[in-house]
Design brief:
- By secondary structure, the protein is an alpha/beta fold.
- Helix content is 36%, strand content 15%.
- A seven-stranded mixed sheet has the order 1-3-2-4-5-6-7, with helices on both faces.
- The longest helix has 15 residues.
Length: 262
């Protein structure tokens, strides 16, 4: 792992073609905790913390949501592999960021796999039912209950997925998030950006993805109509955070996509 005041924090493992992994909102490279080891059996995997998240530095004053993708692109130039062709995997908010990065990197992106992407710009009539951590006060038990509720509402479909280990990870993510990902996640940037990208594209959704509004079938149909050459796939037994909740299926799908001849 490398960390400095001017570069992105990351972990790197494995050997072979370079694969960049980009996490989602209120997260870090630990969003890929169940994926990096398997992917690293075939690729050199670079899992990053985006600026304003995890162990990466804060954004400079004055960098707003509109400049965030440009800033991430500049920071990624400090990682040597980005000057050569590489593969890209991204999750949720990270998919919106990566859709803009792919335009900037151009032919350097060989293939791109997105999981539960945000950035469709479709407003919900009824917002997702989440609770404020402030409502829990200083009680750790009450805070865990709020986190458990919010993870079930947003990220993970099956209650048994929300373990004590998961709650501890999510607490760290909350405490280490200093950038508000919501404006980009709620924007309509994703499909507009991806229409400008020429590399092979895979998009995966958990069958119970809580973000797929109004329902997953409609989201997949809109995506296929807009991006007819993209490979779309529904992953069974998973919510929004599909690469955690059904890691074996996501790992298999990503490896198959990245390795197949186009």
């Amino acid at each position: 792992m490398t960390r400095s005041e001017s570069t992105i924090a990351y972990s790197v493992t494995g050997a072979g073609e370079n694969l960049l992994l980009v996490h989602g909102g209120t997260g870090s490279r630990k969003h890929w905790i169940r994926n990096t080891a398997v992917l690293a059996e075939h690729y050199r995997v670079w899992a990053i913390d985006l600026p304003g998240f995890g162990e990466s530095p804060d954004l400079p004053p004055g960098v707003a949501s509109e400049q965030y993708i440009d800033y991430v692109y500049e920071q990624l130039q400090t990682l040597p592999f980005t000057h050569e062709p590489f593969l890209l995997g991204a999750f949720s908010f990270g998919s919106v960021v990566s859709s803009g990065l792919a335009i900037k990197f151009g032919e350097r992106i060989k293939k791109m796999s997105l999981i539960g992407p945000a950035g469709f710009g479709i407003k919900r009539a009824i917002p997702i039912d989440t609770r404020s951590m402030r409502s829990a006060g200083n009680s750790l038990e009450a805070q865990n209950e709020v986190m458990r509720h919010n993870l079930k509402a947003i990220m993970l479909y099956y209650p048994e997925s929300i373990t004590d280990e998961m709650l501890a990870m999510h607490r760290v993510h909350i405490n280490e998030t200093r950038f508000d990902s919501r404006p980009l996640s709620l924007s309509p940037l994703l499909l507009a950006n991806l229409q400008q990208v020429n590399c092979p594209l895979q998009i995966l959704w958990g069958e119970h993805d809580q973000y797929a509004h109004p329902h997953l079938e409609a989201r997949m149909q809109l995506t296929q109509d807009t991006l007819p050459s993209a490979t779309l796939q529904m992953i069974a037994r998973a919510g929004h955070w599909a690469q955690y909740e059904n890691a074996p299926a996501i790992n298999e799908a990503m490896l198959h996509f990245f390795s197949r001849a186009e």
